[in-house]
Amino acid sequence: MSSGAEVPAAGAGAPPLALTCGDPAGICAEIAAGAWSRLRGAAPLFLIGDADHAAAHGPVQRIAAPEEATAELCAHALPVLHRPLAVPPLPGRPAPENAPMVVAAIEEAVALSRAGRAGGVVTCPINKKALYDGAGFAFPGHTEFLADLAGVARPVMMLAGPQLRVVPVTIHIALAAVPAALTPALLEETIRVTHAGLVQDFALPSPRIAVTGLNPHAGEGGAMGREEIEVIAPVLERLRAEGFDLAGPLPADTMFHERARARYDAAVCMYHDQALIPIKALDFDRGVNVTLGLPFVRTSPDHGTAYDIAGQGLADPTSLVEAIRLAASMSAARMGAGA
User: Fold this and answer.
1) Are residues 151 and 4 in the same domain?
2) CA atoms of 153 and 324, how far apart (whole Å)
3) pTM of the complete model beyond 0.90
4) Per the annotation, where are the binding residues for substrate?
5) How much is the CA Rg of the chain, to the nearest whole Å?
6) What is the pLDDT of residues 174-229, one digit of tens each?
7) Binding residue numbers for a divalent metal cation
8) Are residues 128 and 198 in the same domain?
9) DSSP class of residue 229?
10) Domain residues for 269?
């Protein structure tokens, strides 16, 4: 299956993507330069960050407004809305003094996207502790912050790659806490947001969604747990009655081989590792973090700040390249649907 990450031809007047600077002490400037070098205007974008820091890794062009970030300009240099850092960044050593600018870059990217001046937000990785220490950041991560900025109660995390799309229902909680957290309301909301995202952002008018069970062998008729019978199956039956194309609850150990993946467009999984292990095993470098349910497009590379290799010229921009490509595709899908 395709992830939907091919770069579409830029339509007339299509706004460029807003790329946030992420943590200046990590690999963000390196992968931004690497992604620009690979794409060279195939997906017009601009960086919100410190132009001098970015220029250490490749050619940049300061711009005064997103509208200047044309494909023609992007073919020659990375356009940058210059937002100066408080202190010079040191590789691998996060500086809380720079945290306010990092947070402001995210806020600006969202504001520009909501105003139609950016086609979507592509976020580079952040260090949450540096943001806590330096900016009083009050969120567990990017996703929750973006949801708060958008006024969305519960966005949904998708990991998308060339061969698989997965959505975990429960995310960063202990495995022992999953059964209690897995409520019918949470499962139904996750499936609804996933379905709507596949329609709106991936241009799939009738998406096919496979849903895992929680227990081995999907509970084996109750012998290994009753969550499939008491929680998952009733939700699926109710949504099927509304016209949703749903398969499941299915044993997770047989859902991710090639023939099985051909039968669905996305897999909704019950917990973090159940979703993320198969996609990372299939193609670790090209996975993209997508936030569904927001009023704007948001993607991100599926890795962190990589302090251990920052400044050494070892950073691989592949995941950011894929995040940009997917954001461009999603933006085009929304424009085509009049969203």
Assistant:
1) yes
2) 26
3) yes
4) 142-143, 280, 289, 298
5) 20
6) 999 999 999 999 999 999 999 999 999 999 999 999 999 999 999 999 999 999 99
7) 172, 217, 272
8) no
9) I
10) 163-282
